UniProtKB/TrEMBL annotation:
Keywords, ordered alphabetically: Methyltransferase, Porphyrin biosynthesis, S-adenosyl-L-methionine, Transferase
Cross-referenced SUPFAM superfamilies: Tetrapyrrole methylase
Species name: Aeromicrobium phragmitis
This protein's record includes keyword Secreted: no
Cited Pfam families: TP_methylase
Gene Ontology terms, MF aspect: uroporphyrin-III C-methyltransferase activity
Alphabetical list of InterPro entries matching this protein: 4pyrrol_Mease (IPR000878), 4pyrrol_Methylase_sf (IPR035996), 4pyrrole_Mease_sub1 (IPR014777), 4pyrrole_Mease_sub2 (IPR014776), Siro_Cobalamin_biosynth (IPR050161)
Protein name: Uroporphyrinogen-III C-methyltransferase
Domain annotation Tetrapyrrole methylase: ranges: 2-136
């Protein structure tokens, strides 16, 4: 905001969608409050892109009718756990064991299919397909 007010052209480059855990909302509000014009060019969120690149759809006819995206840094007892709903956790690898335990305690079946994609789109990307019980 200060640099834009000072006559500079400012670019805030964020991979993916700046409004999905990217602070784009807060930055847009700050610019609006300061009367700084903003142009947002959204990208595709990693919540969908990384799964698609790994060949894993977040929705699939007859299997998953919707999906929820949350960070892996929070408690998950409140998330939907119907058999036809995909849960996408971003930034959740460090808490994976704790997260899978929480999901099972919250009512998700241990046999629920799951996938963990680490370092998506990078040369050392790793995809693990298992069940919640196997990941716990």
């Amino acid at each position: 905001v200060d640099r834009a007010r000072g006559g500079k052209i400012v670019v805030r480059l964020k991979g993916g969608d700046p409004y999905v855990f990217g602070r784009g909302g807060e930055e847009r509000l700050a610019c609006r409050a300061a009367d700084v014009p903003v142009e947002v060019v959204p990208g595709v969120t990693s919540a969908i892109a990384v799964a698609a690149a790994a060949g894993i759809p977040v929705t699939h006819r007859g299997v998953a009718r919707g999906f929820t995206v949350v960070t892996g840094h929070e408690e998950l007892a409140h998330v939907p756990h119907g058999g036809d709903h995909t849960l996408v956790l971003l930034m959740g690898v460090k808490r994976l064991s704790q997260t899978t335990d929480e999901l099972i305690r919250a009512g998700h079946r241990p046999t629920t299919p799951a996938a963990v994609i680490e370092r998506g789109f990078l040369p050392d990307q790793r995809v693990t397909v298992a069940t919640l019980g196997e990941l716990a």
